[in-house]
Design a protein that fits this description.
- It is a single chain.
- The chain has about 375 residues and is mainly beta.
- The protein is about 5% helix and about 45% strand.
- The strands form 7 sheets. A 6-stranded mixed sheet has the order 2-1-5-4-3-30, with no helix packed on it. It has a 4-stranded antiparallel sheet with strand order 6-7-8-9, with no helix packed on it.
- A hairpin with a 4-residue loop joins strand 4 (about 70-75) and strand 5.
Length: about 375
């Protein structure tokens, strides 16, 4: 596992009425062995003091940048106001605890999960997960983190290609370990259990009754359903008759359907309440992150290669509009007031802001560094979160 860097910095310039500038130095002693405690890294923080009541009145977005930590966006002004260093390289998956106190990132470079005090930006602890952690969903004080012991570098080969067939044979010959979902107690800072998924897990969603977890398994073209309490697999859905490469997944507004993007088929697969496929509908090029709006009237899909956010009627599945965005836009979030959508576009290194009424781009925040995921506080609808 990659070692955490010995220090991290958090700099935040909030557009509030400021008290006299102060320098606050926090020091956490490093230790090794066992589950990493709160003092597993050292931290130096420099922040402007602000009135707590003012800070609580504002909304913020947190963007994981694979090459540069976590950007903090003041949603009211739609400006970047700070950066948090998670203490490891390659943060991708990102989430916030139910009470808003903890921010977590899944770090590819460290093979771990960083747990951060959201308000101060202080790194509290790092929890060892496994190779190539990626997707995070937070529920209450638990984080569900996908990781891939058999991950290979670079993008996966095209399904059916000689490279894909060779990789499949290699994994069969070597009896390759499938991907897993680590269930993390954020308060205790430990992995409480691991759920075995398919090959190369991607998206995570919870069932309507809260007792099951649905996992998209990219490399073996399945969606698996697991009992959260025991980790046992309840069902495995072969999606190859409908398409390949499942990525994002989201429960429908009525809790009776589940919607999964099929990346290399340019489709969305719809499952019923019993996790049976019922239909598909077409999307633009390479669908990835997926979410409904707060009213459940529209469905939004990020098109990674289509360079757009596609909007569908949530009942008829008819495409309403494709909103031009940027390159490789993977995940997105609504603002807490549902007035805007913020799209993280990795290869164009920007955050694209869209008005939810006009469905037009109203702002672009550049100077990001391979942004991957985005969540907000207070919680909002998005491809990685739900209120």
């Amino acid at each position: 596992m990659g070692a955490a860097r010995s220090s991290d910095q958090f700099t935040m310039l909030l557009p509030h009425r400021l008290l006299p500038l102060s320098l606050v130095l926090f020091s956490l002693s490093a230790c090794d062995g066992g589950a990493p405690p709160a003092s597993s890294t050292a931290s130096n923080e420099q922040a402007n003091a602000v009135e707590p009541t003012s800070a609580k009145a504002q909304s913020f977005a947190y963007v994981s940048n694979q090459d540069a930590g976590v950007s903090i966006i003041d949603i009211k002004t739609m400006t970047a106001v700070g950066t948090i260093d998670p203490g490891a390289e390659g943060p991708r998956g990102i989430g916030i605890s139910e009470d808003g106190k903890l921010l977590v990132t899944a770090n590819r470079g460290g093979g771990n999960l960083s747990v951060i005090d959201r308000e101060s930006g202080k790194l509290l602890r790092q929890i060892e997960i496994g190779q190539n952690p990626e997707f995070v969903r937070v529920r209450g004080n638990q984080a569900f983190v996908t990781f891939e012991p058999a991950a290979v570098g670079g993008p996966p080969p095209k399904p059916g290609s000689p490279e894909a067939l060779a990789l499949e044979k290699q994994r069969e010959d070597e009896d390759t370990e499938p991907a897993q979902i680590a269930v993390v107690d954020l308060l205790e800072g430990v992995v409480t259990r691991r759920i075995v998924g398919g090959m190369e897990t991607e998206g995570i969603e919870f069932s309507a009754d809260g007792e099951k977890i649905l996992v998209t398994n990219e490399a073996d073209d399945t969606i698996s359903v697991h009992d959260i309490a025991t980790g046992s697999e309840i069902k495995s859905i072969d999606i190859k008759p409908y398409g390949v490469r499942p990525r994002g997944i989201k429960i429908g507004p009525d809790g009776q359907k589940y919607f999964a993007t099929l990346e290399h088929a340019n489709k969305v697969l719809v499952l019923d309440a019993e996790f049976e496929p019922v239909t598909t509908f077409d999307t633009g090029n390479v669908p990835y992150g997926i979410s409904f709006d707060a009213k459940g009237e529209k469905l939004f899909v990020a098109l990674a290669h289509g360079k757009a956010l596609e909007v569908f009627d949530a009942k008829t599945y008819e495409s309403i509009k494709r909103i031009p965005t940027g390159d490789r836009c993977w995940h997105f979030s609504f603002t807490p007031d549902n007035a805007q959508i913020m799209v993280a576009c990795g290869r164009s290194h920007e955050l694209v802001v869209i008005d939810t009424q006009s469905l037009e781009v109203v702002k672009r925040l550049g100077d990001k560094h391979l942004p991957w995921g985005i969540v907000t506080w207070p919680h909002a609808q998005g491809s990685l979160d739900t209120p």
